[in-house]
Amino acid sequence: MKIEILGCSGGIGPGLKTTTFLIDDTLLLDAGTGVELLSMERLLGIRDVVITHGHLDHIIGLPLMLATIFDSHKKPVNVYAEPAVVSALEQHIFNWTIWPDYTQLPEQQPIINLHPIEIGDVLTIQDKTVEVIPAEHPTPTVGYLINNGHNSFVFTGDTGVNDKLWPILNQRKPDLLIIDVSFADESDKLARTSGHLTPSLLTGQLEQLEHNPRIAITHLKPGAEDSIMQQCRRLLPQRQIDRLHQGEVITLD
Ligand SMILES: [Zn+2]
Ligand SMILES: [Zn+2]
C-alpha cells in the first residue's frame, strides 16, 4: 500500500499544506490544501474520498477539485463522511453561495455521490477495507483504519484524548499509526480546548497501546514542529516515532 503525504500541516505557509493523504493513487483521505499539488490526470484518478470531519483544513480541496475535473471526469467520485459532515457540506459548501451544488451537477449524473457513514462501519472501498473509528474533537469527527489484506494503517483524524481508540488498535494492530499532535506542551490549554494532543497527552495515551507500530506525528502547528518532535522523542524514547513529512511516500508491504 502506497500512502502519499500531500499535506500534513496544522496550518499553511511556504511548503506547508493541510491534511491530504493519497492512497494507491485512487483513494483520498481528507481533502486539504494538499490537493493543489495534483495534476489534472492525477485528480481524475481519484475514485473515492474519505473525510474525517468538516473543518475547512480537511475539506477545502474537495470543492476546488470538483470544479477542476468537472468537464473531464467520466464517473462520479464517492465521498464518505459522517451524516453531520454530509449535511454540513450540503448546507455550507455546495449551496450555490459558497460553491455550486455539485451533488446535483451535471443533472444526468452528478459528479459526487455523498455516502453517510457511522463509527463502527467497515466499508469496502476498491481493494481495501476502511473501518470508521472514533475521534475526540469539538465537531463530529472520525478516524480511519485502512487495510489492504496485507498491511494496515490508522489515521486518528484530528483528536484530543481519546480512550475509545486504544482497545480497537490493540485488536487490529496496525503497522503504522498516524496521529495528531498539533501543539507543544506549552500550549496544553489550547490543545485541550481545540481537541488536539500535545507530546505529554500523547505519552499518556500511548500507555494504552500494547504493540509497537511505527508512529508518525501529523497536524503540527507551523512554527511548533521542532518543539513538538523534541518533546515527543524525549518522552517516548522506546517508541518508533517520527513526524510525517509533506512529499513523503510511505510504502507498507
Ligand atoms: Zn479539526
Ligand atoms: Zn485539522
TrEMBL record:
It holds the Pfam family Lactamase_B_2. InterPro entries: Metallo-B-lactamas, Pdiesterase2, RibonucZ/Hydroxyglut_hydro. It comes from the Bacteria. GO terms for biological process: cAMP catabolic process; negative regulation of glucose mediated signaling pathway. This is Beta-lactamase superfamily domain-containing protein. Residues 17-205 form the Metallo-beta-lactamase domain. GO terms for molecular function: 3',5'-cyclic-AMP phosphodiesterase activity; 3',5'-cyclic-GMP phosphodiesterase activity.
